[in-house]
């Protein structure tokens, strides 16, 4: 690899690592405001994606009318979901947490059934323990979705810091740039 390519790669890794570490620190220090920012960005995305879908449906001359109508309706619903998110970003966050809690409970029930029925290729005790823990975790998320989201954001922040630091530690040495 030529020295210019190595230099460019090093700069890319350094910039993205520093951004990851900074975002990780922000997520840990201010988890709830960070969640709101993410929700607002997602809301903007939904509005833009919905409007673009409606625009494509209106301008989609030559495409089957069933596609145009479906695309237009879905686009309008997506845009409305985006507007709801922008008006109150906590709503989609809580919905997500509740859905995750329900998913944990369902996964736990499936694990318990597999553990008691004898799931092929797995041991009963770890499967049952996993099922019980998943159900308990799901119940906690269902009863405290805000706390669950905050904990998730803190863990995401920790992951960003670890990934950013690891990328910096794995940079090619400066000597590789001079060759």
Percentage of residues in DSSP E strands: under 5%
Q: Give the assembly state of these chains.
A: single chain
Number of helices: 7
Measured between the Cα atoms of the first and last residue, the distance is 9 Å
Following the backbone from N to C, one meets helices and strands in this order, namely: HHHHHHH
Based on DSSP secondary structure assignment, what is the total number of beta strands? 0
Helix content: over 70%
Instruction: Tell the overall outline.
Output: extended
Q: What's the alpha carbon Rg, rounded to whole Å?
A: 23 Å
Compose a concise summary of this entry.
This protein is mainly α and 179 residues long.
Detail the topology: elements first, then pairings.
Blueprint: H1 3-29, H2 31-59, H3 65-87, H4 90-117, H5 124-143, H6 145-169, H7 174-178
Keywords:
179 residues, 88% helix, single chain, mainly alpha, 0% strand
What would you note in describing this structure?
By secondary structure, the chain is mainly α. It is 88% helix and 0% strand. The longest helix has 29 residues, at 31-59. The chain is extended. The N and C termini lie close together (9 Å). The mean pLDDT is 88.
